[in-house]
Amino acid sequence: MSKKRILRSLLILVTALGISALIAFVQIESYKKTVPAGSSSGRAATVAGTPVGGPFTLTDHKGQPFTDQNLRGKYALLYFGFTYCPAICPAELQKMNVALTQSGVATDKIQPVFITVDPERDTQDVLAKYVTQFNPALIGLTGTPEQIQAVLKAYKIYARKVEDPALSDYTMDHSSYIYFLDPDGNLLGLFGVSSTPSEIAAAIRAALD
Ligand code: NI
To answer: Which of 113, 126, 194, 207 is the most buried (most CB within 10 A)?
Structure first.
């Protein structure tokens, strides 16, 4: 091989390596964007490659119609759960409160919302009693089983009735995430059970600064 040919081969090799490194980088970056838990930095418009969110029509704990449009113009924290939940839901709602307080962001800038996965038992009255215990600013949302199904589907929330022989009534098996949305309804972060209030507070501050 002549020197020229060797140089050219080297150049091709370096270019090829560069391209594969770039592809790997892009793949890692897009993977990072789809990782749900604690993806507080950067915009996460998708979860595991699927878009999250969308329009919904529900009823608030005061009996007023409430749609996704009611959240436009404000940041929001959404949590999906049920009022009869013995442990996880109350802890996560409490976490949301602590995060909001820690963020120091004015309450008129960010709206905490609780959406029931158990519309059968979580009627307007039940929700009203429940949400006001947590935070006077918290909005509770319920709806018909079809409306709840639609919002759960849009937000990729898994929820299922489970009959427990040890309990007099059924319980709900459900995924537990706090969704952080911007004023246009875009997903800014998704926080699981292992996320801390400080992580959520930091994400709120970062977005609102
Ligand atoms: Ni729960």
So the answer is: 113
